[in-house]
Amino acid sequence: MHLLREGQFSVASTFLTEAASNPPQAVPTPGTPNPYSSASQEIDVGSFSSESLAQQFSNMYHILHELRTEHNLLPAIEWARANSNKLEARGSNLEFELGRLQFVWLFLSGDSPNGPEGLQRALEYARREFGGFQDRYLREIKQLSGAMAFRPNLSQSPYRRLFQNQSAWEEVANSFTREFCSLLGLSADSPLYVAATAGAIALPTLLKLASIMKEKKTEWTTQNELPVEISLPPSYHFHSIFVCPVSKEQSTEQNPPMMMPCGHVIAQESLSRLSKGSHFKCPYCPTESHAKDAKKVFL
C-alpha cells in the first residue's frame, strides 16, 4: 500500500509478485501467544490485488503533475465534478477552490498582450461556473468579481491576497490529495511515513532517556505510555489528550477525565482522592459536589 501511495507502481508489482511466490511464514516469539495458530488467520498475499489501487493512484499523480508542473487545473476540475456529490457530502471546499484558482489564472493572464481577452475569459468563466456555488460561496464570488475594478492597481487593492498568493497552487494540490485519498478511505499521508517520521523525531529523546536510566540503574515502569513527553509537530496530533490539572498526569482509559457539575475537569483518580466518597469542594471554584455527579469526558 505504501509503495502504491508513493507512486512506486513497478516496485509494488514486483514486491507482490515475489511475496506471492514465496509467502512469508509467521514465526511466533517464544513465550508469547501465536496469533497465526489458526489456518484461517494466515495472511494470503495472493488475494491482494493492486491493479485497481494502482490505477487510482496513477490518476492522482497525473492530476498532481498537471497542477504542480503545468499549472493545468482542468483534469482536477473534471475529477471534482465527477465526484461532486461525494465531496459535497463531506463538506469539502475543493471544487470551489479549483474553480476560484482557475478564475485567478484566467484573470492574471490579462497581464499578457492579450489582456482584455484574458479578463473577458475570466468573466465568462465566472458566469458559467459559479452559479452553482452562490449558496455557499457568495461572499467569495463577490470578492473575485469586485477585483476586476482594481486590476490596474491590484497589488494595492483589498483583493491582493487572492491574486498574489505564491503558495496557491501547492495549497490546492494538497487539498486535492487529501480529498482524493479520503474518497478511497485513506489518510492523506502514508501511515508508514507518519509512523517512521514520528519515531525518528522521538528517538533522540528516548536514547537520552535510556542513557540516563542506565546510569541511575532504573527501569521503564510504564507499559501503555512513554515515560517522557515527546513534542511532535501539530500535523502529527491525531487524538485529543487531557492532562489532569491536579495530578499533572495524562489521562488514560483506566483514568479518564471527569467533568464535575461546575464544568471543571480532572482525572478520575484525582476525583477519587479529593472526594473520598463524600462531598468535596472543586479545586478551582467554590462549588461543592459529589463524585457520583461527575460525568466521564470522551476524547
Give, in order, the helices and strands: HHHHHHHHHHHEEHEEE
Structural class: mainly alpha
Which term fits the overall shape?
A: extended
| Straight-line N-to-C gap | 29 Å
Round the Cα radius of gyration to an integer and report it. 28 Å
Based on DSSP secondary structure assignment, what is the total number of beta strands?
A: 5
Mean pLDDT: 82
Percentage of β-strand residues: under 5%
The oligomeric status of these chains comes to: single chain
- Weakly predicted, low-confidence segments: 38-47
What's the number of helices?
12
The residue fraction in helices comes out at 40-55%
Strand adjacency order, main sheet: 2-1-5
Main beta-sheet strand count, sense and barrel state: 3 strands, antiparallel
Write the layout of secondary structure elements.
Elements lengths: L1 H4 L3 H13 L29 H18 L5 H9 L1 H6 L4 H15 L6 H15 L4 H13 L13 H4 L4 H16 L7 H26 L40 E3 L5 E3 H8 L4 E2 L6 E2 L5 E2 L3
Antiparallel strand pairs: 1-2, 1-5, 3-4
Helix pairs in contact: 3-10, 4-6, 6-7, 6-10
